Amino acid sequence: MKRLFRFALTAAAGxxxxxxxxxxxxxxxxxxxQSPPGSVVQGTQVKDGVDIVVKMLxxxxxxxGRPLKVVYEDNQGIPEKGRAATExxxxxxxxxxxxxxxxxxxxxxxxxxxxxxxxxxxxTNCWSDDVRAxxxxxxxxxxxxxxxxSSAMAETIAALKVKSVIAFAENTDYGIGQAKLLGEFLKxxxxxxxxxxxxxxxxxxxxxPAVLPLRAxxxxxxxxxxxxxxAYILMNQLYEQGVAPSAKTAFYDGAxxxxxxxxxxxxxxxxxxMLAFGLYHPAMPMPALGKExxxxxxxxxxxxPNRLIFQAADSVLLIARAIEQAKSTDPAAMIKxxxxxxxxxxxxxxxxxREPGYRFQQWVDIPYVTYQxxxxxxxxxxxxxxxxPGQPLQIDKVLRPAK
Amino acid sequence: MTxxxxxxxxxxxxxxxxxxxxxxxxxGLTMIFGILKIVNFAHGEFYMIGAYTYTLISxxxxxxxxxxxxxxxxxxxxLGWATExxxxxxxxxxxxxxxxMKDEYAVVVTFGLSLLLINLVDKVVGPYPVRGPALSDVxxxxxxxxxxxxxxxxxxxxxxxxxxxxxxxxxRSLWGRQVQAVAQNRLGASIAGIDTARATSIIFMxxxxxxxxxxxxxxxxxxxxxxxxxxxxxxxYVIVVIGGMGxxxxxIVAALALGVLESFGAVYLSYDxxxxxxxxxxxxVLLFRPQGLxxxxxxxx
Lengths: 403, 301
Known about the structure:
The complex is a heterodimer of chains A (403) and B (301).
Chain A: H1 2-22, E1 26-32, H2 40-59, E2 68-74, H3 79-91, E3 97-99, H4 104-117, E4 121-122, H5 130-133, E5 139-140, H6 146-160, E6 164-170, H7 173-189, E7 194-200, H8 208-216, E8 221-225, H9 230-240, E9 250-253, H10 263-267, E10 275-278, H11 288-301, H12 307-326, H13 331-340, E11 343-344, E12 349-350, E13 369-372, E14 384-387
Parallel strand pairs in A: 1-2, 1-3, 3-4, 4-5, 6-7, 6-8, 8-9, 9-10
Antiparallel strand pairs in A: 10-13, 11-12, 13-14
Helix pairs in contact in A: 2-12, 3-4, 6-7, 12-13
Chain B: H1 3-36, H2 43-61, H3 65-88, H4 102-124, E1 141-143, E2 146-148, H5 150-172, H6 174-184, H7 186-191, H8 196-222, H9 230-243, H10 248-268, H11 274-288
Antiparallel strand pairs in B: 1-2
């Protein structure tokens, strides 16, 4: 009897230990800007997207029966802080993967750490091609990339038949990289177009000296390759000086700022008639999962979702699917799973390219739209679509101000 | 007018306007240095608090921006008073036994205050930039060949009035003369019966008012975010040294000169090095006139 009791006790203890082990959370590291000088606007959106999808997954029983837990680190948009944050997440918090990156210079610092520790790194929103060109097997890119934007913009600019284009680019890996690429694509798509770019300080508050020379010699098109808040200030000063948008000069945003929640509050009249490159539009076809995530966000934030919500959600979903396919949180097994995966997330179905260069481990055919804002305070859903994913441009729909 | 002279004129006017904004910030900083011989590293956050107070009062309570403006000034005065009363007073009221060096204390305390205010606003109000309401709905004004927003025009006008008002206050009023006396010789002023603590408090409040008003007036132009004060504060440090530390006229002249220099340099030299021009000027001044344009060589006996 005593022996039986001892056996039962051991069995119970074993079962308890097993259940405790099974309930141990899987920890994912998210490094984002939560305080200045980084883009806190982007960081907040990424966090919202991550939180939504982690809750959805945990409500359905987690991954491999274990709940997901997220550890956030504030990188302040500073590369050194991002490097330290990633080091801490991997070594101290023992995360199985790192994600959330939304500023290229920070991502470039963080992937070095992930590469050293051979930890999967899912790049949420760093557009610089250099992040891919490094060829690190740990880095996966379900988000947008500079070559994609620049080729799309060059196509639109060629269709607009403009003779002179000036781009204002922020002085970062992302900004300068995209401005240079746009120039290269324009040489092919619109060789007759005179193009130049001006690098501006992303922390600047007055861009009037860069704008004033355009008054005497206005270009046909001004392109924005800057992120808020600098982008908003630039737009207001272009408008104040009567440069763009105007009857002579169109304004084209290549940084995807039109769907930021604070866009209209900051630009007002200066945003009317802006052409925009976008990675999300409510009219885009979307899987049921994407619609569900969008609805949850809209319900809790009382505003339309933007691309970052979906990109962040997909970043976490990718990690979850990799663990499920690998049946393990072993980094090498997860990387192998991600490399061969046919993934269906919130924005569509894709697999990662294995071509070297900017296509390396990238969702190459990421869908995009071109649209125009025709009224102040216009939600994205009410804007005029100039190009639907995979369809030709409808450039005749583009409106110009009367003066 | 042809393109090039028009552009030069445009740049000159724009440079002067930017210089006026710089002056509002720099004058407050130099006044504090004049009286306490310390640098206030939280000066940019006085500016940020003014910008936020103006924006939040006006947008949140729906009151006219013209009414929000004096509230922003009051917030700057309150912050200046509190900083002086609770953080700066140990510098000169018998806390010598703490064994702290005066300069180190000031750097640590004001730098800490700066970080505290930035992060406090970031967490309480939020990280998003918020554009302040304009004092004028006119988004474009053509003044002859110049294009300005109504807000910029009003801001430049108010800045001129404020700077003239400050000069009159310092020169003509009793409190202004007391401040001058304390700046010249704290102990001597004290022996002559001047309340030196009150004079210091007045300077901090005036400095806070100027910075907060600068922030409020520029809120519709700069779209305040929690770190909005860093950039003008750095400019102010450069201006104060170029103009001569502690010299109010020096700061005004240096601010205007820097505004014009940056405006021209950005177009005719390189926009990439726009923020470098002030630093080059700073190095030249330190090499050839270390006391600054309007400063006086210090002598100690």
